[in-house]
Amino acid sequence: MSGDVRERIDDIYRSDSRRVLATLIRLLGDFDRAEEAMHDAFAAALETWQANEIPDNPRAWLVSTGRFKAIDRLRRAARFDAAADEIAKQTDASVPHDADVETDELADDRLRLIFTCCHPALSPDARIALTLREVCGLQTEEIARAFLTGAPTLAQRIVRAKTKIRDAKIPYQVPSREELPDRLATVLHVVYLVFNEGYSASAGDAVTRADLSAEAIRLGRLVVELLPDPEAIGLLALMLLHDARRAARTSADGDIVLLDEQDRSLWDRAQIAEGLALVERALSSRPARAYALQAAIAAVHAEAVDARSTDWRQIVGLYDVLTRIEPSAVVELNRAAAVAMAEGPEAGLALIDALLGRRELTDYHLAHSARADLLRRLGRTADALAAYSRALALATQEPEWRFIRRRMTELESRG
Amino acid sequence: MKYLCLIYDNEKTFATMGKAEMDAFMGEYGAFTESTKKSGHYLGGHQLQPVHTATTIRSRGGKVSTTDGPFAETKEQLGGFYLIEARDLNDAIQVAQRIPSARTGSIEVRPIVER
After folding, report:
1. What is the pTM of this model?
2. Mind listing the pLDDT tens digit for each residue in A115-129?
3. Which residue segments constitute the domains of chain B, with CATH numbers given?
């Protein structure tokens, strides 16, 4: 097999493995069996595909191969186990043929999967963990980092959720129209977290993971299409507006460029235009909710020529509303940064110190680097260095380390 | 798939209910039971005597202890149950949310182990 085929299969794995998995779960009725089948299918692809013989529709090939492999496994197990024999017969009978794998059912499979993973009968933590694992294919370690929790805890949470789906028989389906609004909030929260993982990767040598953000935006679009709820629209707007800055957020060397130093000509204007139109739609229904407000904040940035001419007072005002409807320490931290821009670094610093004084965000590296930045602007070099080294110890991403070290070097030379 | 719907309600609420109100509530239960029989969900169900009639038994190392009252004191008490046949958890939830006590107390839905 040539290297080209291997690369092509890797590409397909990245782009399509979750779709294949979602369909296999529907066909096989079991998460673990489907995952095993998917891996068998990709292994078979590596063995059998030749450069000139990659199937026209690789996804359909993988789904039908995975299905056959699963039935095979069950038949082999059936020699020892009568129950497995029964499952094999049922699976064989219920499984459609290749032609059926091409229908619209496929498009719905990922939506089915996300609604199943976000079922209210699962604990909130489990919904998010399971969706990130199954729908988005994140590694357990990555999810653990996003949650600031241990990988074994996360793994156990996922296993428990899958067990409940099987034992309590949570169906693999999109909720009915009446159920949809209630179940949407959790789905949106999950989409939001997926986007965040892509927008600011939890670890590794890159700041962003475009594929994950694109995935979250795709999921967001799908939800908006299914249910044009103002919060779903607000979330999509938020993601588009943030993602539009992607190219400006890192230098050619992969270093972090903060908002105030970004080359705004690199911002994706078409995406911003789409985002702004969506913000307007989202805000037209009152009262404004959390995602729509965050999107509105992103919109204020998007409309400003540079950091200096940004309407910081309006941003602080939007954060005020946001803090009221959805109190969180991270929102307060962002508000403090906006206050620092509107009223000066001292005002912002007082707010961050108060937050840290409440022992919130003590282990959040961005709280310490935001604090360090304000101390730097106030000329308190020694305090700024101390805060940067705290941030350095807590950061987990290579470009963040480089960014913090760069700032520290600048400060030390300033001395 | 069989599910047991455990009905938890605050007994004190019933103690303060007038007769007409109580009759209306029990009437709703009657209608609910009938509707689940018609839809094919119903397998069985009973109302329980109040929790002050409960006795809890434990046997440890051959020694049996019998105590007055329920296993755990809670704000809401187990007051009855339905055993239902449902397609899946969503179907079971659709049934359980129509149990009159879902509005006043809560319903715990538990899948039955099938062997």
Report:
1. 0.70
2. 999 898 998 788 888
3. 2-111 (3.30.70.1060)
